Amino acid sequence: MDDLNPLAGTAHLLEEVDKKLMVLLRDGRTLIGYLRSVDQFANLVLHRTIERIHVGNDYGDIPRGVFIIRGENVVLLGEIDREKESKLPLKEISVDEILDAQRREQEQRQEKHRLISKALKERGLAVNTDIINEDFC
Amino acid sequence: MLPLTLLKTAQSHPMLVELKNGETYNGHLVSCDSWMNINLRDVICTSKDGDRFWRMPECYVRGSTIKYLRIPDEVIDMVKDDAQAKARMRSEMNKGRVGAGSQNQNVRGQLRPRYKNTPQNGLKSGSRGPINRPLSQAGVNKTRK
């Protein structure tokens, strides 16, 4: 049966063209836009893109226009389910509020990291921040 | 249209380039190549934290350091119009071959691409007269042996 279609069960980025997709980048950014074109490196062209920032149960959208994303910076992408999109359990807030919330969350994370490295240093272990990979989920 | 082809058509348009280290470069695209190496002019570089700015008349960015590029919406509209016009041309031409020649009269009005102000071959858009066209485009008779 499988020699009828050796490609059965595989996925092509070309099938995702003109769909509304969510793209997750290696730096943690979430972009939502319509995929217009792809190439062999999985470089993407996203149209009518918005950057969505999530903090807790809140989110904020920043319209960004057209993106040409270099393929190696993409973690994953997925088609947005329109029904689920309209029934999100999350609350949308304004851009200024979400940026504030994001900054506060970032500060909390840095403070926590500072305390942990201090505690570790007191116990004779050093955390070298230079080698920490910037890629995070 | 392929992403790198779209980038090529965005030449002379302003754009924003973000590098993997978070720096952003705002400038007009001069040129690009198949490795995504780009050359920008009138560039403003912003550090990752957004606190430091540099201004430079031109800069070269190696493609492998780019995270993404943001281009103005008009570039993609330009490309869309171009693709639609070509598709219409092709279908009209096919119809014209089967039917009467009069159908071709309607096509002529649509043959001209609808985008404006794109310089071709370094010429300004206003100077498309016969004097400024390169000889190869003007249809000069090549000498025959």
Structure description:
Chain B: One of its GO terms (biological process) is mRNA splicing, via spliceosome. Chain B: GO terms for molecular function: RNA binding. Chain B: Residues 86-95 have a biased composition (Basic and acidic residues). Chain B: Residues 86-145 are annotated as: Disordered. The complex is a heterodimer of chains A (137) and B (145). Chain A has 137 residues and is of the alpha+beta class. Chain A has two helices and six strands, in the order E-E-E-E-E-H-E-H. Chain A has one domain (10-134): SH3 type barrels, CATH 2.30.30.100. Chain A has a six-stranded mixed beta sheet. In chain A, a hairpin with a 4-residue loop joins strand 1 (20-25) and strand 2 (30-38). The longest helix of chain A has 28 residues, at 95-122. The model of chain A has no long low-confidence stretch (mean pLDDT 90). Chain B contains four helices and five strands. By secondary structure, chain B is an alpha+beta fold. Chain B has helices at residues 3-9, 73-98, 103-111, 135-138; strands spanning 14-19, 24-32, 38-46, 53-61, 66-71. Chain B has a five-stranded antiparallel beta sheet. Chain B has a domain at 3-93: SH3 type barrels (Roll). Strand 4 (58-69) of chain A pairs antiparallel with strand 5 of chain B.
